[in-house]
Amino acid sequence: MNESRIALVTGGNKGIGYEICRQLMHRGCHVLLGARNRSEGEAAVAALTKEEKGDIGFITIDLNDPRTFSIAQADISGRFGKLDILVNNAGVVPDGDYKVYDVPVRILKETFDTNFFALVELTQIMLPLIRKSPAGRIVNQSSILASLTAQSLPDSPLKQGKSFAYNASKTAVNAFTVHLADFLKGTPVKVNSAHPGSVRTAMNPGGNLEDFEGARTAVALAMLPENGPSGGFFYLDTPLPW
């Protein structure tokens, strides 16, 4: 089955998204690397083609331009007739040093537009193609910072991670995961949220994981077997609290 799986990964031109693309290629998927910038996306495709054997191509997905969603859907439908895997990886962390008491509503709206509303709209547009797959998989890239349970513990280990706009947008993503998984109950489609772990990035210099490690949870959820879970929130094989 793996040889014919068509996988769309948003934000695939760098970081964790790039590694998700690479690891899905390694597992025999035909990967569609989604990015908003064509030159950067095609450069990433060229690099991955040198690194991995397998099929990969660029497709324009700009979370700030929903027109690209419909164009991509028509392209995928025409070429493949289905979509087996959607990894909603792209997102933004614009909070900076703002806290809950002073983050501008403008920042909140911009964050939700990209991290939540665009993710929902893209998924809705791709869902008819995913439902044509014999084993559809939707993976929503989230974060442990979205966990209301973990954030509200008196001795929460997340006390330094209080970027309200980002965290709240990912909490909303988790709600979407739960609702969509419930709607698709009884179908072959599985929907889950992924926490990549504390990956070292420019915005998270204290992270202890490399990109290839951060990609593992999303890839595992994308490749779930028929008896795998749906409607969950995971880091690797470990369920996380909502």
UniProtKB/TrEMBL annotation:
<protein>
    <submittedName>
        <fullName>SDR family oxidoreductase</fullName>
    </submittedName>
</protein>
<dbReference type="InterPro" id="IPR020904">
    <property type="entry name" value="Sc_DH/Rdtase_CS"/>
</dbReference>
<dbReference type="InterPro" id="IPR045313">
    <property type="entry name" value="CBR1-like"/>
</dbReference>
<keyword id="KW-0560">Oxidoreductase</keyword>
<comment type="similarity">
    <text>Belongs to the short-chain dehydrogenases/reductases (SDR) family.</text>
</comment>
<dbReference type="InterPro" id="IPR036291">
    <property type="entry name" value="NAD(P)-bd_dom_sf"/>
</dbReference>
<keyword id="KW-0521">NADP</keyword>
<dbReference type="InterPro" id="IPR002347">
    <property type="entry name" value="SDR_fam"/>
</dbReference>
<dbReference type="Pfam" id="PF00106">
    <property type="entry name" value="adh_short"/>
</dbReference>
<dbReference type="GO" id="GO:0016616">
    <property type="term" value="F:oxidoreductase activity, acting on the CH-OH group of donors, NAD or NADP as acceptor"/>
</dbReference>
